[in-house]
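User: Show me a protein chain along with its predicted structure.
Assistant: Here is one chain, sequence first, then structure tokens.
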Amino acid sequence: MNVQENPLPPRRTQRERRELSHDRMLEAATTLIARQGSSRTTLSEIGEASGYTHGLVSHRFGSKADLVRTLIDRLQTHFTKSLLPSLAGKQGLGALKLACETYLRAAARSERAALYVLLGEALGPVPEIRPEIAKADENFRRAVREQIESGIRAGEIRAAVDPAAQAALILATLRGLVIQRLLNRDSFDLDRVCRDLKSNLDLTLKRSARKK
């Protein structure tokens, strides 16, 4: 009886190898920055942690500052992609409540920790990344504002609500809750806070049913 050997897996293309190394480098950077900050993280450490050389990391990103900027964009993009499937078919207040809960429940992941470490550094030792962090905040506020505006058009959110002001308040609430959670995982009951957060959004934004 002939025994057929398992065929070797196809060799990765140059593009696939490049994408793989790119992802591994950024994943290593995420873990290191979450643990020790970008100011204490070197390209050599990122290379070692990802299995590549310092030279390749430097060649790929140019500088640590450019790597960090790429990482900030990646963290935003990954969160958005992870959220989109659950938002399918939803808009307005329902989408807003789901997005807030998803964001808060993601707080324990290393990429969230890395983003908050970078946020703190942007205000202190690494001011050169402040524009990128500010842009991330702007994108978040805009997404929240658009859902509020959608809810107003649908008649489920009060027309008197100021979308921009509420977007800023919602972002501030989420940022504050995540910081508490990152500082102390047991700082509050996550399930209860998520439930009350959604109830508060209803109380603040929802249009009252008309009396018959």
